[in-house]
Specification:
Largest sheet of chain B: none
CATH superfamily of one domain in chain C: NADH:ubiquinone oxidoreductase Nqo5 subunit
Low-confidence stretches of chain B: none
CATH topology of one domain in chain C: Beta Polymerase, domain 2
CATH class of one domain in chain C: Alpha Beta
Number of helices of chain C: 3
Number of domains of chain B: 1
Number of strands of chain C: 7
Structural class of chain C: alpha/beta
CATH architecture of one domain in chain C: 2-Layer Sandwich
Distance between the termini of chain C: 48 Å
Low-confidence stretches of chain C: none
Radius of gyration of chain B: 21 Å
Mean pLDDT of chain B: 83
Shape of chain B: globular
Number of strands of chain B: 0
Helix content of chain B: 55-70%
Largest sheet of chain C: 5 strands, mixed
Mean pLDDT of chain C: 84
Distance between the termini of chain B: 40 Å
Strand content of chain B: under 5%
Order of helices and strands of chain C: HEEHEEEEHE
Helix content of chain C: 10-25%
Largest interface: A-C, 38 and 31 residues
Structural class of chain B: mainly alpha
Radius of gyration of chain C: 16 Å
Chains: A alpha+beta (374), B mainly alpha (362), C alpha/beta (151)
Oligomer: heterotrimer
Chain lengths: 374, 362, 151
Amino acid sequence: MTTTTLDFDTIKTQEYLVNMGPQHPSTHGVLRLVLKLEGEIVHNVDPVVGYIHSGIEKMCESLAYHQIPHLTDRMDYLSAHMNNEAVALCVENALQIEVPDRVKVIRTIMAELQRLASHQLWWCVMGMDMGALTTFFYGLRDRELILDIFEETCGARLTLNYSTPGGVMFDIHPNFQKRVKDFIKYFRAKLPEYNQLLSGNVIFRERTIGIGHLSQKDAIAWGVTGPSGRASGFACDVRKHHPYSAYDRVNFNEILRTEGDTYARYQARVDEMSESLDIIGQLIDNIPEGDHQVKMKGIIKLPEGEFYQRVETARGELGVFIVSDGKKNPYRVKFRSPGFSNLAALNHMSKGVKIADLVAIMSTLDLVIPDIDR
Amino acid sequence: MAFDIYDFTSLTSSIHEGLATFLPPVGVLVAEWLLVGISVLLFVAVFGLILVYLERKVCALFQQRLGPMRVGKWGLLQTVADFIKLLMKELITPNKADKFLYNLAPFIVIIVTFMAIAAIPFAKGLQAIDFDIGVLYVSAVASLGVIGILLAGWSSNNKYSLIGAMRSGAQIISYELSVGLSLITMIILAGSMQISEIIQAQSTGWFIFTGHIPAIIAFIVFLIAGTAETNRGPFDLAEAESELTAGFHTEYSGIKFAFFFLAEYVNLFIVSAMATVLFLGGWMPFHVGSFEGFNAVMDFVPPIFWFFGKVMFVIFVIMWFKWTFPRLRIDQILTLEWKYLLPINLLNILLMTLIVLMGWHF
Amino acid sequence: MNQTDIANYIGNLFPEAIISRGPQFPTIEIPPEKLITLCRKLRDDEQLAFDYLFCLSGVDMPDHMTVVYHLESTWNGHCAVVKTHTTDRKNPVIDSVNDIWPTAGFHEREAFDLLGIRFNNHPDLRRLFLDDSWGFPLRKDYTDPARIVER
């Protein structure tokens, strides 16, 4: 008679694949992640993108330069203004046009309002991904006020189309300054609520601290920018290091943290909200008089060459790379979108975490899918 | 028919006698079974709907909005409309699901809740069965629900469902311990497992006051463990919608989904009712020592209102948890139970025993 | 380092590179077979220390396929552009810089997807946005009568 002994080293739980998405509550759109799981533990994340690839880069090749900003709204719709601004700045730099100070200041204020609105929505969704559904309504309550300001300024709430090459589409509404100031006062009082509801919560801290670590070296190597990168200590704030518009005339801190975990990325964004309020506060009383536009030609032709413009969107560094052959359409346009590079690092950050942590990590990367797919 | 809102014994006995006049004893038994069955069924359906409505309103309160307002006055008929919608929806069975288990699972879950309700005392004399091991019965029956959840997760042939079911299994089996042990703590104080006797023992003061420190600890532990056992937030890992879409009931639709949904709320009621019975005096009015005047005023409120008032309070607290806290992770939820609640509970039992032996309770 | 310093420094190390000053960044044009050596040098050299690749784009020029690398040094704060091209437009192959800057992995997949540039030694060169049967839409000779209306 033979006895069989169980060799426990050879008995292993089977790895299995789960398709998270394209329709999944926490992939924020149509992102699909192919997860390789062992029980609850994530072994590999393979992002599958392209479900809403709309060929914006290809479309740009057949559009005139003043038409391109309209497409960029649809990329990262939560930072629509920064996207517009990036193209506008790129064209202006190529033509060596100096826009009036008024335009610079208005653009900066709008960009910061947009950043606030984006971070507010991110905060809502972050809470929801962690299972605290109440945060959603707190964030949206405040975001609504910013959207109202946008609506009064340019008629749109989400896809602003406000910046154009040469200036901004319309001058600001007479109420603009008052409403923005009211909003700053209101939101300064409400921001502590955000911390009370999530940041200080024991469960939230337990869920986020030490999870999804990304070192500074890795953040740079993987090109993780924006608040996600700065939470790892990567000083990548384009507003600070390559100032554009009116960022060279305001004082603000680049929020840098060293921990590089989910909580640091969370806190970096919350702190950035208050920095944005500071920037707006410094500019709102000093909007210079002047034109809101430079007179541009009906058909803009860029000189032959290659032009690159970097701006800081709510998600990170957006790059616009235009190759021009001197005609009225660009020869090639490439958008270096922040979400695209940030997503690439997801697998690196989430090896060995649990499913619930993966959702939290993804949430702090603040992915907007059209921004990735373009 | 004698009806006394302060004491339902006269009502139930008059029904019993009335039936006995024209039916043989077996017939009386069957008729009473039917009566009780129908009333429990009605209660579950109606109270389930009320709780769903209440949840939405409480949630709206915490989220600074109004909640349902359109269907009926203050949206009172919203849940009814939703229920009708659920009834009319197509029942979808996934292709490769284990058909028998898949269809069985929601029934197990809902039947278990019916069984538990049988032992809940709604008012004086208004209790279907007064077992002499009532507390044990309720906790035993309530833990059967996990079988339904595991079956639902397994038979759906969906990985999300399976993960949700496994989480739920691990979680409910763990928290069963804490629920049981905190109940035992109170049983030591009461000296009985019969629910009517436990309530009677609180006529001079609710256990949460007479049992002071250990009773309060047991109450808190019971609330946490009870929330976990009903799979409600912040312990709703089994259905964590941001991770597992809907967990174990992802694949269910229509009335089968409604069964899970309803069972969740009825379980919430059962947990709150048990908390009420063991800690807050069941249907006993609030009495303070020998203040005769005050006690008389309290006695004026019928016991059934006392019971539902207290249950609603506990339900409100549990809903408060759900709409305030983020969800825990599976390892944290198990750590909380095995490393914190269980040792605390065991020490608490020792403390309670000591207090009862020394007569240090009120 | 400013543009001239970078140009001189690299010019000394890689005589075959064509270095020009642009309005924004110095541009280094390098033959594809030297690309990896150059990129390694750019990242590892302490004076240059280009540790951050912020953009990688493929461009379909009329007679060649170009890949443009935008680099920044987070230590020294200077930027540079590296360009390499292959004249084989039919089956362009360029070495992957994925193991020098991991962020390139995704960008190279995008370039492969939209322009059909193959990257040697890329660990996971699959199409990113489009499905396998699709052409390479950012190529100038791409035609799609069903979806593109010529004006």
